[in-house]
Structure formats: C-alpha cells, structure tokens
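Escalated from tier 1: glutamic acid holo job.
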Amino acid sequence: MSNITVKTRFAPSPSGALHAGNLRTALFSWLLARHKGGKFVLRIEDSDSARLDSAAIEGIQADLRWLGLDWDEGPGEATDPVHWRQSARTEIYAQAAETLLQQGDAYLCFCSAERLAALRAQQQAAGKPPRYDGCCSGLATSEAKQRQQGGEPAVVRLRMPDRGALGFKDLVRGSQSVAAAALGDPIIQRADGSAAFLFANALDDAKMGITHVLRGEDHLSNTPRQQILLARLGYEPPHYGHVSLVVGADGAPLSKRSGAVGIASLREAGYRPEAIVNYLARLGNPVADEQLLDLNGLAEHFDPSRLSRSPARFDFAQLDHWQSEAMSALPQSTLLSYLHFPGVPVDQRGALADLVQPNLSRADEIEAWAVRLFDPALIPIADEKPLQKAGATFFEQVDGVLNDSGDADWSVLRPLLESTTGQRGGAMMKPLRLALTGLSHGPALGEVIRVMPATIRQARLQRALAIAAAGDSA
Ligand code: GLU
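Tier 2 regenerated the structure:
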C-alpha cells in the first residue's frame, strides 16, 4: 500500500437522496483517501436509466459539499461527464464487452425470462441458491452471432470458473472465500446493450485507477465476479472492503425511504455538518479521541481494518451529543451569520452570542434568543403564579437595585439583590429570570442582566410588578 497513490471513490446510484448509511460509506472512503494522502473520486452510477432521478445527482453533490467531502475527480463545471457519469460512458462498456466476447471470456445468452424464472423456481424447490446453469455457454460463437443478427434478444454473460475457490482479503472483513461453483455466469450487458451494474462499476474502478473500494456489505458477493472480470480484461483489481450496513432503531436497514435520517432532513432540522461527520465517522468505528474533530483529524485516525463487522445502529442520542459539541465549538462569526434580528446593536452581538451559545441546540436558535432579549415588543411572561408569589415589592426592589447598579459584576449584584429582597438563591433568581425572559431556564442570569438593554429590563420588571400587584389585590 505504501508506494502507490491511494485513490478511493464514492459511486452512488442516483435513485434518491443520500441517507446516513450511504453517506457513512462515502465518508469512510474520503477518510481513507485523505489518511493516505491520496485522491477521492465521485462517480455517478446512472447506467440503469429506469432508476434515474436527475434531481438526486445535484442533491448528492450538494450534500457532500455541505459536509466538506470534496472530490478530486468527478462532477465539475469544466469536467466532461464522460469522466464521472456512467450514462456518458456507454461506448467504453460496449468496447470492453466486445473484447470479452472476442476473447471467449463472455458469451451471448438467449435464455428467456420464462426459462430463467422456471430455473430459479426449480433451484428454490431443491433448496439450492439461484444460479444460471450455463445453458448458452456452449453455443458456437458463429451460431450465437447469427441468432443475434437475426433479431433474437441476447444478453452477454461473463464466463466464470466453475471449480476451485475464489478468495480475497477484504479490507474490513479479512479473508473471504467462495466456491466458484456457487457463482453463476453473471450478466454484464443487458439485451438493450446497456452495461449491467457489476460490469460498469468494476470497469470504471479499473479505468479510473481506483486502488481501494469501500462499499456496503450488500456488494460482498459481487466482488469475486468483479475480480475475475477485471483480470480477464488485464486489470489489477482494487482492494475491496465491505462496510456493515447502518440500521434504524427498529433494526431494519436504512433505505432511501428512511427520510428521518436523510442528510437533507438532518440539515433542515438544524444539525451541523461537523456533528454529522463526527457521529457517522465513529459509528461502528472506534476513534480514541473523544473530542469533536474536523475531517482531517478524523482522517488521521482512520483505519478500515478497525471498522466493526456487525450492523451499526443509528442513534439520535449520539448524534445529539455531537450536535451539542459542534454547537459549543462553533466560531462566533458562523453563529452570527444566523442572526437577522436588527434589534441587537452591532457592538452587543458578540456578547449575545457568548451568552446564548451554551444553550443552543441549533445555530438558528440565536435569532429567537435575540428576540427574547432585545425585542421591546416581546411580552415574555407565560406563567403568572410565580410572579404573584414573589410579590410586587420584590420587583420594585429588584428594579431599584438594577437601576442603581445593573452593570455591576454578578458576584456583587447577586448578594445585593438577595439582601435587598430578603430572598436567596432560587427564590430570588427564579422570579427574576421569569420576569426578564419568560423562561424558567436559560443563560446565566447575571449575563442576561448585563446584555439586556436597560429600557427593556425596566419595562419587563414593571410588567411583572403589575402582575404581582394584581395578584396581591385579588
Ligand atoms: N452504485 C452502487 C451503489 O450505490 C455502488 C456500489 C459500489 O460502491 O461499488 O450501491
């Protein structure tokens, strides 16, 4: 591994939006490339036009960019799609299929869908795995060509060895071996001339110089076939590693239908890209450093042989942990980019951000805090009982102290408020916090008092006083 330039890739089929499962595979591939100082390729596998969703091609790129997973080769304004999009590469596949046919490593197969269905049913009844029985593999090439030219639909199948064991060393799962006899001859070209997934995928990896493939374990059984295919075409196959699937809380594999863990919906719900990558990079992958890491930091630790082989369960509680880490680490400038409320004076914006940052679970919540602390029109009091319990005198005294010394340090202000009102700890702070913010929890009270404009503070205390007075006289 050491002397070659490592090149990995993410090769999604654009049949829908990215979800946490396929994104995790992309992330692992990116981390491997960066760990090795290599290159990362994005390739769009749209050879199966029936499953094509063109919006998904844009969506996949937007999601990867948002998460910081940049690619060295792939879609780009000045890049011809022939370098990254399978639907633009049909010529390349057709030529390779022809080469295999000429070499005798592939053959035309005329078996009808009915015959294949009957064969499968027979095999199933006998408790055997489905496998093409090689019916057309013995046809003479000239006869096969003639039938095809006569208009009979034909697929192209790769001739696989029928004895011995096919083995390879999986980057994640270690030594793998499968009996050649268990694998039928796979279709590499459909009757309409289009390339089958297995064929286009392997050929692209070879032609693009991919050295390491990390992909979902659902592709494990394709690997021996693809290795044979590439060897027949004279290519060195890449190293393959098969990553366990991500399952939902119910244990079922995530799919494009698992909207809740679609990357776009996580973004809309306010999750930060750093939180998502830190969570997914650690899902089924031990990372000793428990701090929030950037992508390069995560790449430094990455080793595919340490990835877990069992399914990884998506856990929102863990994602939320990384979200709060990401929120605490957010630079002030990013936080302020979410602040559109004009009522916060420019020189107070930093103080507001510092004040509320520990209380944020999403960056855009800073806007709501700005309104809560700086909007004179906001009427923040929801529950009147605690205000009435504190009494009108309490608010009168608090107002007096704050008007005289509201800019004093909290360590001075708090004992002053306590001694003036005769209320200590929560009995002093709770009604005061409620009167000022309308909430029973929130940022440090001393800081709230310092940041909130005096006119707003006074108006809110007067309002609390009026409520308490109405309670007193009731
Ligand atoms: N297009 C395939 C998929 O989305 C890629 C498989 C691979 O990574 O080799 O599952």
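DSSP finds 20 helices and eleven strands in the chain.
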